[in-house]
Structure formats: C-alpha cells, structure tokens
Amino acid sequence: MASTFETKATIATFGGKLLKLSHKSNATQTPMDVNLYLPPASNDRKVPVLIFLSGLTCTPQNCSEKGFFHAAASKAGLAVLYPDTSPRGADLPGEKDSWDFGEGAGFYVNATAEPWKKHYNMETYVTRELPEAIFGAFADKLDKTRVSITGHSMGGHGALTLFLKNPGMYRSVSALAPICNPSQCPWGEKAFGGYFGAGEKSQWAGSDATELVRAKLKSGEKLPCLIDVGTGDNFYNQKQLLPENFERAVKETGVEGVEVRYQPDYDHSYFFISSFAEDHVQHAAKYLL
Amino acid sequence: MASTFETKATIATFGGKLLKLSHKSNATQTPMDVNLYLPPASNDRKVPVLIFLSGLTCTPQNCSEKGFFHAAASKAGLAVLYPDTSPRGADLPGEKDSWDFGEGAGFYVNATAEPWKKHYNMETYVTRELPEAIFGAFADKLDKTRVSITGHSMGGHGALTLFLKNPGMYRSVSALAPICNPSQCPWGEKAFGGYFGAGEKSQWAGSDATELVRAKLKSGEKLPCLIDVGTGDNFYNQKQLLPENFERAVKETGVEGVEVRYQPDYDHSYFFISSFAEDHVQHAAKYLL
Questions:
Q1: Is residue B1 part of a domain?
Q2: What interface predicted TM-score (ipTM) does this complex get?
C-alpha cells in the first residue's frame, strides 16, 4: 500500500475489512476522508470496485455503517469505495449555513462560480484524482479496469451524471432515490445556481441526468441502469427527485436497459437503502464479474 | 392493535415494517421506547419473536439501524423486538453521570438497593411486562409460544441470564460479545454493586451467567446457546467479557449444546454485530420454526 493515504482505522466486517482512509486532495485543496471496503476475495486476487456516492449531509461513515452493502459485496467479491460528499474545512463564507448547499452538499460537480470554484471540484475528485490514488495505493487488491458506480439521492445524481459524462469509465450505474432532474427541483436550483451561477443554464444541463440522456444517448443505445425509488419518500413526493422526468427522457430518446422500480411505502432513509443494497450490488456484479 | 402502545413511526424495510413504539411501564414507572420489526410473513400468519437486548449506552434505535437482523429475519419469517436498555427520565441523582451505570445501563436486573429499586426493574420489564403488552397488542401477528432471546455485550449478559433464570420462557439463546461473568469484571462490579449493594454477593451470583450455569444446570443438560466474540474486541481484551469463564462453567458442569466462537480481528461494534446477525437469526430459527 502506498503512503498517499493515512489509514485511520481497519475494521473487520462481513469477512473483509473496512478501511477508513484520509488523503490530501489537489482537486479540493483539502484533506478528504474516504472509506474502502475490501471483501475477503481481495486477499487472493484483484477485485472490481463499486463506488457509492452518498447523499446530502452524509460523510463516508453513514453508508458504511447503515447501508448494508458489505454483506452482498463480501459474497460477490466486490470492493466498495465511499468518497465524501464535499470538501470539508475550506472555510468559505456561508459554507456551513445550509444542509443542502456547501459542506456535505458538493453535488459531484466542478464549481465554476466564486467562491466555490477553488475547492468544490468533486467531479474531478471522484472521476480522476481519487481513482488514480486508490488504484495506485491498492494496486495489488483492486482491478482498475472493472469499476461501477451507484449512489443515493444527491449521490444518485452523481452516479447517473458521472456515468453519462464519462463513457467507458464505469461498466454500470445504479441509484437509490436519485435526484434525476436537478435543473427542475429546488435542491438542484440552489446547488447549480450557487456552484455554476443562476444564469449558466448550459452548465446546469451538462450536469443534469435527464438532460444528459437527451444530449448524449441515441435510440437503441444501452444504459445499464437500475433505479429504486420509495413511494413513501417525502423528497420524492416533494418533487425533488423527479424520476418520471428521467424515465420520459429515456423513453423519448429510445434508450434501452433502464429499469426504474417504485418500491411501495419505502422512505428516503438508510432503512430503504439497506433493503435494496443487495440488488444494487448484484446489478453491478452482472457487469463487473 | 391495542392502544397500549403509541406508534411513533412505521418504516418499510427489508420487505417488512419496523415499528417505533412507546408505552408506559409499571415496572420502571417511566415511558419506555421499544422497536418491533414485523417480517412480511406476519401479514399472513403469526410469526415467532426474537428479542434483542442491546448493550451499554444503546437505545432501541442502534441495532434497528446498524445490526441488520432484519435482512435475515425477513427471510426466516421472524419478528425482532428491541427493548430499551434502562428506564429513562426517572431523574435519580447520579443517573446520568456514567455511561456504564444508570441510564442506558440497566443490566436487565431488578435493583434492590436505593435509590434504583423504584425504577430499575428491567428484568421484570423484559420478561413479564413487555411480552404481555406486546403479545396483547399484536396478538394477530406474533406467536407468544415461540420466543428466543439474544443480545450484545450487556445485552448478551441479559440474554444469557434471563434464559437461565426462566426455564421454558425462551426456546434458544445467543449472544454477541456478552458480559459472561459480571461478578468478576469492572462493569459488573460497578453495576451489581450499585443495583444490589456491594455486599450482596448472593444476588450478584443470581444474575451472573457463569454462576447460573453452575447453580441451575446439570451434567448432560442441553443449553441451546451460540456465542460469538471478536478477538480484536477491546472490552474482551480488557477482560470485561470473560467468555472463557462461561465456557469453563459449561465444561465443568457437563452442559451440552453450547457453541462459543472466537472471530478473528472483529471488534465490539455494530460492524461485528451485523456481520454475524444472520447466524444468530438462523440459530434462533432452528428452535422457533
């Protein structure tokens, strides 16, 4: 293991190890925490990696503790990588004033507006810097050619958009209760207005999963995508998620392979995430193994 | 459902429902929170119940969120009942001064010393009052003739002692990192000294799993018991748990059916509990189904 990461904890769980890591990021100009679950199979051979992007307010700890991905990842032989949701400690004015903007709410984009653009470069961090660092440090355990991505809520937005923006980077994508059309919902309007500027609608569209389907994909093209949304999810019901808009774009574009499931009564919490974690691991495993 | 319980939340998870309940307890003279997981099978027929007793500082929420008993309980068709770890709000002097005594640390005994004996009657609460209330309120969903018990740390002590003190009440017992010989460890000495009095050693022995094996069981008798302990558990290594003393009592008494497993590297946390939750559900299911 290279020395780019500090290992803060090594925890035995589900037959493998959960590593709590920290490193310095050039993309965000801050230290970044990241968790890595190594399944038992990683002792014998290189394993593929499923990246889990967390939602608003979360750190790498929440899903590591409550998401239940490790049970299925252990059986399938997948590593799970949990990046943080934003830079922390950048000390920008207003950074901690909202739970849905700034710290804990990086939206997996590269900010272009002041004062955010110096630190809030989560897209570069997640798609370039972190993979390079983690596949360098764990070259003996992780197979950098087999990577999939998933996420929850804001992290579901991140998974969908980073997949669509980076053809070939990930073998599959899935999302739990994702923000599907941020340009059209209050969370997205606030975040994109802040990180890009209120008038920069072309940049908004460039990081909006629904718009990206229309802009990037063609009829008959395959999008290996599983989405679960709970019908008891208060944010779904408040129209923050808008999965129907994403489905409409998929249908009107003629894209194939997308499955969107509406799960009766489930809410937005980790009780929902953990209930379907196995399905999302198995979805990724179909493309990774 | 009878009106003895107030339902604070109903959460869809793993195909079933987690109910966050509250009721007034005569045993503790306080309101008591309790969680109940109902598997999907409980819609069609009465299901057996596995009681999970939590460890020091915990509420019914910790294991409900991080223990992942629901994944296996859903498949097996078991309900899981999570009592709290002590009365709360009794407002006794010193009740909140320690994390290992008083609030969050009731040790599943009936206190006999002042000022604790008015409220700290968790043994009566868990073995009499709560079952009567829950099987009354959920008479159409729960089978009161099929109950097993398990727990973690202080709750493992509770599971082992309540099983041994109440022949016929539970069909099986298991424990994760249990306090096995509280009379001989700092946690137990503090708790029993407080709840019973420093000199009341016969009462100490009457709530000590290792002593109960010697006092209650005979050679050849069957104790349907599974115990897991992590070798990286700091409390195990500090000799708070003393599973070897329990094993010695089992061996010297000639009791059969006890399996104690030492799990390499695992710690005392929910990362450990969740890793073996399925095994403990399946252990109970062998006797309940």
A1: no
A2: 0.96
